[in-house]
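Hey everyone, long-time lurker, first post.

I ran two proteins through the pipeline my lab uses and got sequence/structure pairs for each. Pasting them in order. The first:
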Amino acid sequence: MANPWIALDHGADPAERIRQVGRAHERFLSGDLVVPQIRSVVAESWRRSADALSDPDRTAPIELGDDELAEYRAAHPLARALPLFRDLLGGLAEDGDHLMAVCDAYGRLLWVEGAGSALRRAERMNFVPGARWDEQHAGTNAPGTAIAIDHSVQIFATEHFSRSVQRWTCAAAPIHDPGTGRLLGAIDVTGGDHLANPNSLALVRATAMAAEARLGSHRLAPAAGFETTPPGVAGRVTALGRDEATLTFGGARRRLGRRHSELVVLLLAHPEGRTGEELGLDLYGDAASPVTVRAELSRLRRALGPELLESRPYRLRAALDADFRAVTRLLEQGRVAQALAEYAGPLLPGSDAPGVTRMRRLIDGQLRAAVLASRDRALLRAWLRAPWGADDLHVWEEYAKVLPPGAPARPLAAGRIRQLAAEYGLATGLQRSGN
């Protein structure tokens, strides 16, 4: 296949492909994890979905009610691009066969627009504003997979992990903050099998690029008293909530491999420089090999260029900022809400390098402690809604304490506390806290 992100080869029979993929999907659900006839991007997504979902027909949950959704999306950066989305995709969404959808970086649908008949069909599978359509909650689908891999992609019919979604075909592209490279969400077009062509993928990619340009031309001035990026910075590394970091430098954005991501993060944490021996311990612990470390650094130098990396000691030559450094700066300034908004997830979560693991625990611990100390209901709720905080029993207990009597969220919080306490072998969360 010439383009791995497009669902069908030129001239392929859609009906036959649906049957072929459907058979592979059933074999996969029966335990055959080898799916050679399936695109690698889909096979990898199926494996992630299977790890996260016990039921392949699970319906995407609705996380944001009407009032919360209105408040959340009004403040979301992609709200500024909504008129552009409607200009570029509105005609397609109004033809009765297609939907336009926008999700945030967690896969929560912010807007779903289209003709009434298409919207009603989508409602049957909870493809509605406020629902969570990341892979962990809805399985393989274009917006969820696009944010998982940070790349535009088509998902065709039976390539969807959930059977209830296999009547649809969709194409989605991720959207980034043009100043920081941070993932903001994705733009998606959903409809029939005829969307499985290069044009639909090109359309959502062009729309995402136009949105990033629009956001870049309307960047808001930072709030008084703090900057998320210090002056004089020449580039930025984004490493929170993703296994492979991205580097924005010289007007270009590149994705780093896993080991290069670890090295760049470690060098950013030590601007004074690091010896090869120190980097070896940071990467491999006691199993470090000087030859292996030198080889990795040599490959990194070739990838970044001499203008970015120097040796003796190893350090980054250019002034680079990073999203995880922005979080710690904001915490130092007491800007807990801004730090939580900047935090896209744990630092390189797939890394087991000792130096990265220490940094990850430190950042997570500092942010969590600040959220708990704030006793701010909105901050506690935001932490619990995020994937890394959904099972945090202590935060659920603190959240329950700040809810006013009679609040609709109190029964939900109490039920979640009992559920987690049982999973952790405790009688109840309230007994654990001594109340």
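...and the second, right after it:
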Amino acid sequence: MRLTDISPTPALTPLDGRYRKQTAPLVEYLSEPALNRERMRVEVEWMILLANGFEGNGYEPIVQGVKPLTDEEQAYLRAIPETFDDEGIERHAAHEAITHHDVKAVEYYIDDELDCAAEVLGHPTQLTELKTLVHFACTSEDINNLSYARCVKNAMEQVWLPSAKAITAHLMGKAEEFAELPMLSLTHGQPATPTTLGKELAVYVYRINRQIRHIESQEYLGKINGATGTFGAHLAAYPDVDWVAVSREFVTNRMGLTWNPLTTQIESHDWQAELYGTVSHANRIMHNLCVDVWMYISRGVFAQVPVKGATGSSTMPHKVNPIRFENAEANFELSCALLDTLSATLVESRWQRDLTDSTTQRNIGSALGYSLLALDNLLGGLQSIHPDQATMQAELDANWEVLGEPIQTAMRACELAGLPGMERPYEKVKELMRGHRINQDDVQRFIDSLQFDEQTAARLKALTPASYVGVAADLISFAE
């Protein structure tokens, strides 16, 4: 049995197979049918603008020989993309099989719908005579660049950003919950100045939120200006029309994008490189989070909640493996690889046009799909762990040498104030604590051996590894 003989054909990639459920929301915006539906939206809105004008031209038709479309006719046109279903997908594919051109197939699909207009509306309509208006003065890239920009914008705003914000919301909740829970730090893998679990989680909230704000302020550029960006065909047909103003109106107010006035045949895709670079950066921050949490689990700082019936290891029944974090790592890496390629490829085009961007952009869904899958795994992993406070306290109790820092810093302050016996503070503390396991008694005897003033000595002797966390809890408020 050949797998290719099975109907429907099994998915080639895990995004549309094994992980279909997690990535399905992106199908609405970044699949091939979604792109074709958006192309139809662009085409019909262009028709409506040409027929009905806009405020800047007194709502007069921009092209001659066309009467302003009625509300009913406009509604009919706008319904074409909104009713694009499985049967419509097949009809579009049938046109493309003949044209070998996806945008031309969209044009012919709309022509078919215009042919049916009078029958559907139940009375004669000028729509049946307006095939010439479809794709008027447009090059395919006029339609494509606007469609991709709207698809990506909606995918980011409706799917990716809410998923990323779910991560930061969860982390922020845990940061506040564990704001004062002390934890041993490890710098270079060695015991270091204690912190709190909440503060360490808040670090990631702050980092991710910066990238989210960049994405929320991202420009999505678009153009509609003809085959080489000169409005040549437009002026050849209607030399008295202010086509620059028409273009600006359409891109800005009808498409909801930022107008790009200077392009070749293609919109230059710089906004895409900017966006994908930011998403890739966010991916890498969250990859770092996955690695940190994985190591906290290994160290025992976090305990995992076993899933009833789940198998951690095929041979070691006791194991609860941190697979969600490992899966998230891998998928963030795949997403970054694709996003980095998109960013590098899309900003280059030979002279006024080549087609490298065409096939490249078809992978935007995959690039964001792997990121979305990683976000899903990361959130699931974060929801399945909790701090093991006994382990965290045991680590702190076993590392009293971390108090060498506050003691030698206090000695420096006393030396600067002229207190005798405080010279060479770093070296004295180093002799006591470096490479040695010490306990509370050792620390207090050392403090007593020095000539601290009474207030400083009491303050230092009151310190423990668990209490030496500075203002960690207060810093959490800066995360959002």
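Reply from user beta_strand_b:
Welcome! Quick read of the second one: The chain has three domains: 22-133, 140-387, 400-464. DSSP finds 21 helices and six strands in the chain.
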